[in-house]
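Pasting two entries for a bug report.
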Amino acid sequence: MPRRGGDIGDRSHPGKISPEFFERAVRPHLGQARRDVLVGPRTGVDVGVVRLPHHRALIVKSDPLYVEPRLGWDRAAWFAFQILASDLTTTGRKPDWGAIDLLVPPETPDTVLSTILRVLGREARRLGTQLVAGHTGRYEGISFPMVGAGTLLATAREGEYVTTASIPSGAILLVARTPAVEATAMLATFYPTEIRDRLGAADLRRALEFAGQMTTVPDALRAAAVGVRDQGVWAMHDAAEGGLRRAAWEMAAASDRNLDVDLDGAWVDPVVERVAELFRFDPLAASSEGTLLLAVDPSRVEEVTGALVRAGSSVSRVGRFTGRGGRVRGMDGPIRPPFLDSYWAVVERKGHAPARS
């Protein structure tokens, strides 16, 4: 199966803008520069960080609210919150506060709106997060799955959080869980009959189970509990859009570190492999909310690995960060992020995904 992603550039495909477009159209227009901004918008960095008095920092994360009805309303709302929380917890911190804008189509029943709000509140409570602001309403022109936006915030003392902007030379790159968690779960949800008929009922059941693993929150918090910075984890990044290939490239770009990596060394679940072969996509370049990349201090690799394995996660050691430059080199030469997420390529190729049968 193909394992080589293409170059990126300006694109009309769905998904993130390219790094080149970010540098050209976003970075020059960020308002007034302030000295209290410790970490601002940057390719591959999941959060912003602002200096507070008394050696503390405010960590901020904002993302679209993605509610996919075909997951079922409860699971869809759970996943919407996990997308937000996964990025925030890559700092090693839990969110303290949140703000949600939930904008739904006019025909949305009260029962659906109530379910989404109930689940968002439930998941916030589980992390000790209070939702303190937002907006909820029905509006023309809104359609699922993009139905608003969310922001999560946390505070930390200096030295108690991490971002991908500060990975040191020598840090080891680990991957927790299989690539293509999200792509496999979504394709099983959209095309269950095709998977059942071609791969069998057991593979369909297993593929659908990945829907409950589309979060990096537990793994990020377990790894951070070992320690952060030179006590354990220097940085974490979830392999969302663009999958493992893009996430590794983003970590190198964000930290301006070179990365020697063997992405083919990452363990891929056999069911993921079979689903990828069936739908002809690259599991290393496919959306994978649930797969966590970690830059770990060499002296703490065994401890971090052990903490994750004891909790049921697979862990693969796939690379090492070196000197300055931001270049990624694989076994076959330089690696660039994929032009198009290979999961999105499947959806584009097959047309609008059908409702679950």
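Entry 2 (this is the one that rendered wrong in the viewer):
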Amino acid sequence: MKIAIAGATGLVGKELTKYLTSKGHEVSAIRREGSPEAPYPQVTPDYLEQFDALINLAGENIAAGRWTDEQKKKILDSRVNTTRALVTALNQTKNKPTVFINTSAIGIYGNRGADLINEESSAGKGFLADVCRAWEAEANKAQRQNLRVAIARFGVVLDPKGGALNKMLLPFKMGAGGILGDGRQYMSWIGMHDLVRAIEYILETDSLIGPINMTAPNPATNQDFTSALGHVLHRPTIFPAPAFVLNIVLGQMAQEMLLEGSRVMPDQLTSKGFKFDYPNLENALKHEIEKS
């Protein structure tokens, strides 16, 4: 397949490009024209028509800094504006692409405790849920004959080169790792290895449409995650981070990203035959850390 990717220079974009290329696909990065600060890619229908598939991974890093009003606007606008620009061009194409994958996040479900969540579950409350609703609303405006639209709702992506796992590794390696808050909040995760495989599976499986949870089938509590990471690194995990300290340091971001969570299942993927290579957390952590 010929595949265009927006956000190809990000953590997932780099790994996905490498993986798809290794599988014989032809991948092109959609770049922002003009200055690096351009708010979204400038693409035309003629440009998109050369591709079989379009994948949108673009968006401001949600963990780049404290959620000030300005940072919240960047997080929202980077997703909505990029998606809107791509969809506007996509709807004007005639023959190709035939599949559009737009990313979202399981943050759309909000804080749901231990309840089992799947793609049919309702949206929750909070800033991340609001961002995901607006983001997905723009993606769902992609309506053209013979176009399949899939919304890939990412969980916590395990990759030591970036994201949550990257931030955890140093304190854990120093023996200063521990649970966050009470440790009972769920972390619905997926290893980078299985994430890129799942994206290719969506590209090649015509029956996968609409919201798709990109999470492994065994979500873990923060306490279980902490124990598994400590075991993989052969380090103690005895230094908890109290909720009040995290809230003081990080504010709302700590509450929604670290102290709350949801127990999300990948029902769409598994029901359509996708097999995870690393469905077990400790094995996934070991694989991702050792391959880096």
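Dev reply: Rendering is fixed now. As a check, the viewer should reflect this: The first strand starts at residue 2 and ends at 6.
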